[in-house]
Specification:
Elements lengths: L1 H11 L1 H13 L5 H13 L5 H26 L1 H15 L3 H22 L5 H4 L1 H6 L4 H25 L4 H29 L8
Helix pairs in contact: 1-2, 1-3, 2-3, 2-4, 3-4, 3-9, 4-9, 6-9
Length: 202
């Protein structure tokens, strides 16, 4: 996976960084913790501009997360709760979970979007309650861009600092990326197996 990400960015440049970050947010097979440090390595090697790399990663992250915002807005809370009542095991989600998430988001809204963009997994999913709660688009964009820029900037700078240890890092990043994917799948399977309905939809 390490070599594939590097090859994609090497071949496509900033477009590769952008597309990988869009994909990471639409369906996260490769976490940004892998993509952006590798882009930072290439920036440290002189192949990419640091500023443009961060900009491409931030833009890709924002574009990717918009899909989940609009999905949340299109589905609506009532429809999602009905779907969770019928297919809760598949979603590992109950109507009660949705109520709790909505209440929490109503209390923390903007801060949740901003901070959520810097947390693994939450980074992708935080856009759904934003859409469900009909958060104004301009507010969603401001806090999404701010959080995404800080996150991608930190990861890219980390890769830039470590670029001299490129070969050494490669030995750790590839198995780590596979471990992340296996962990996410394992958690999902566990939740499916142990899931129990607690409430019917209203």
């Amino acid at each position: 996976m390490f070599d594939w990400v590097v090859s994609t960015i090497d071949s496509w440049g900033y477009a590769g960084v952008f597309l990988l970050m869009v994909a990471e947010n639409v369906f996260p097979p490769i976490p940004s913790e892998i993509i952006m440090p590798l882009a930072g390595f290439l920036a440290g090697r002189g192949d990419l501009s640091l500023g443009l790399t961060i900009a491409a990663g931030t833009l890709g992250s924002v574009v990717g997360t918009l899909m989940w915002y609009y999905i949340g807005m299109a589905i609506g809370e009532a429809r999602l709760k009905r779907f969770a009542a019928r297919h809760g095991r598949l979603l590992t989600l109950t109507p009660a979970d949705i109520d709790m998430a909505r209440d929490w988001f109503d209390r923390h809204g903007a801060a949740a979007v901003f901070a959520g963009r810097m947390l693994p997994t939450i980074r992708t999913l935080i856009s759904v309650p934003a859409g469900l709660s009909r958060m104004p688009f301009w507010k969603f964009m401001i806090y999404t861009i701010m959080g995404s820029a800080i996150w991608t900037g930190m990861l890219t700078l980390g890769g830039l600092v470590l670029h001299e240890n490129y070969a050494l890092v490669a030995d750790y990043v590839d198995p780590l990326s596979k471990l992340v994917v296996l962990t996410v799948v394992g958690i999902y399977v566990y939740r499916v197996v142990t899931w129990k309905p607690t409430e019917k939809a209203n």
